[in-house]
UniProtKB/TrEMBL annotation:
Name the record gives this protein: Related to NAD-dependent histone deacetylase
Keyword match Ion transport: no
Source species of the chain: Cephalotrichum gorgonifer
Ranges of residues in domain Deacetylase sirtuin-type: 9-269
Listed InterPro entries: DHS-like_NAD/FAD-binding_dom, NAD-dep_sirtuin_deacylases, Sirtuin, Sirtuin_cat_small_dom_sf, Ssirtuin_cat_dom
Superkingdom of origin organism: Eukaryota
GO molecular function terms attached to this record: histone deacetylase activity, NAD-dependent; metal ion binding; NAD+ binding
Gene3D superfamilies reported for this sequence: SIR2/SIRT2 'Small Domain, TPP-binding domain
Region (Disordered) location: 345-442
Family: Belongs to the sirtuin family. Class I subfamily.
Active site annotation, chain numbering: H139 (proton acceptor)
Alphabetical list of SUPFAM superfamilies matching this protein: DHS-like NAD/FAD-binding domain
Cellular component terms (Gene Ontology): nucleus
Length: 442
């Protein structure tokens, strides 16, 4: 009998009703949430990777080395204008949180949100009221910005003015290029991602909302939770290996509809709707509800308005160079797969998977060896827990022990490596770009 058909060990059954009971009965007190682009589509933010309607698909026809060059740090140094055309359309304030964002905020208000890991750069979690100390922005965000040369921060008001005017901001100190603290190709993930990945081992419920789980190491996070921890997927389709565990629940369909179902079963629907309305206003609520009720073709037409504004702005830009990015063509952006793989393995030794995000859709995709190495590393704590649980060790005690182990390992790693510096922001990692191109992906 397959795992999918085996009886759950934590949930009463594999349903939203059982998940709701877990929350209502107080058995889910440390909820970890993982989010991707799907949580923001009903806000009107276009999907980047849809084959025909996504942003990257539309950028294919423009004079760019490759669509993702807009987020390539080497390309940005020579041609910052294309990114700022996109930034003008996607900048915070142009969009508003969805009911799914409001649900995460509600979890935080009820002291049930242990940690939120998001791949999104839109800052809608912050706008929804989720406390910043609960958010891990794995790929950075528009929330802050700094010079890519001297790393000086740049004022928020000036940044907003430059973006609105379509101008490239320059550092007030050294006149270097200013970039939002978004992770580009050629940059490492924020240190906070590595230092907080152990939070999955502490979770007693994991909610995965609107992500294809195609970008590593984020895609490996669901594997970190305990074998008996329920994992609930809210997505249009099944992704990763979700559904393979006895306590997995798949709620396939629109994210917002699935979240509303869960809220209703818990008894929070009215409270959720009131919070969402108070956050975005009645007109925005009506707008999003209307958008969600549209036929797919009409919804894509509305999204196309944002994409067309971006592509129209890019068409008139004259690029420097000969149309070839130094990091294009090999799917790893600047390094051969072999060099990248060795670099990535070395990074993993320090429990700091910086620069490991690899997109499955990129040309060549992630190497099997690297993906296996990464997943094995992330599985380590969960596997240890599973063995101890089988030996009869109390799960709560084991979980606490592993949590402490993770913290001890971090301290030990710092002690063994005298050259290791304190956690850096992602712009500080840019000093390493010239010697180790091609690590990162949005």
């Amino acid at each position: 009998m397959g795992v999918e058909k085996s009886s759950p060990s934590t949930l009463e059954d594999r349903s939203l009703d059982a998940v709701a009971s877990l929350i209502k009965n107080g058995r889910a007190r440390r909820i970890v949430v993982l989010t991707g682009a799907g949580i923001s589509t009903s806000a009107g933010i276009p999907d980047f990777r849809s084959p025909e309607t996504g942003l990257y698909a539309n950028l294919e026809r423009l004079n760019l080395p490759h669509p993702e060059a807009v987020f390539d740090i080497a390309f940005f140094r020579e041609n910052p204008e294309p990114f700022y055309v996109l930034a003008k359309e996607l900048y915070p304030g142009n969009f508003h949180p969805t009911v799914s964002h409001a649900f995460i905020s509600l979890l935080a208000k009820k002291n049930l949100l242990h940690k939120l890991f998001t791949q999104n750069i839109d800052c809608l979690e912050r706008a929804a009221g989720v406390p910043s100390d609960k958010i891990i922005e794995a790929h950075g965000s528009f929330a802050t910005q700094r010079c890519i040369e001297c790393m000086d921060s740049f004022p928020d008001d000036l940044m907003k003015k430059h973006v609105e005017d379509g101008r490239v901001p320059k550092c007030l100190r050294c006149k270097g290029l200013v970039k939002p603290d978004i992770v580009f190709f050629g940059q490492g993930l924020p240190m906070e991602f590595s230092l907080n990945s152990f939070r999955l081992t502490e979770a007693d419920l994991v909610l995965i909302i609107g992500t294809s789980l195609s970008v590593y190491p984020f895609a490996a996070l669901p594997e970190l939770c305990l074998p008996r921890t329920p994992r609930v997927l809210f997505n249009l389709e099944k992704v990763g290996n979700l559904g393979s565990r006895a306590d997995d629940v798949l709620e396939l369909g629109g994210c917002d509809n699935g979240i509303r179902k869960l809220a209703q079963k818990i008894g929070w629907l009215d409270e959720l709707n009131d919070l969402w309305k108070a956050t975005v206003g009645e007109e925005e609520v009506k707008k999003q509800l209307k958008r969600q009720g549209m036929l797919g073709e009409e919804f894509e037409e509305e999204e196309a308005g944002v994409i067309e504004a971006i592509t129209a702005g890019l068409e008139g830009i004259e690029l420097k160079g000969e149309g070839e990015s130094p990091s294009s063509g090999d799917g790893k952006l600047g390094e051969t797969a072999e060099v990248c793989e060795e670099h990535d393995k070395e990074a993993l030794k320090g429990v700091e998977p910086e620069g490991l995000v690899t997109q499955a859709e990129r040309k060549g995709g992630p190497s099997e060896a690297l993906q296996h190495h990464l997943e094995a590393h992330l599985h380590q704590k969960a596997a240890t827990l599973a063995v101890k649980s089988a030996d009869g060790t109390d799960e709560a005690e084991t979980q606490d022990a592993i949590t402490q182990q993770g913290r001890t390992e971090d301290k030990a790693s710092e002690g063994k490596n005298p050259d290791k510096k304190a956690p850096k922001n992602e712009s500080q990692d840019e000093n390493q770009d010239e010697t180790s191109n091609g690590k990162e992906k949005l």
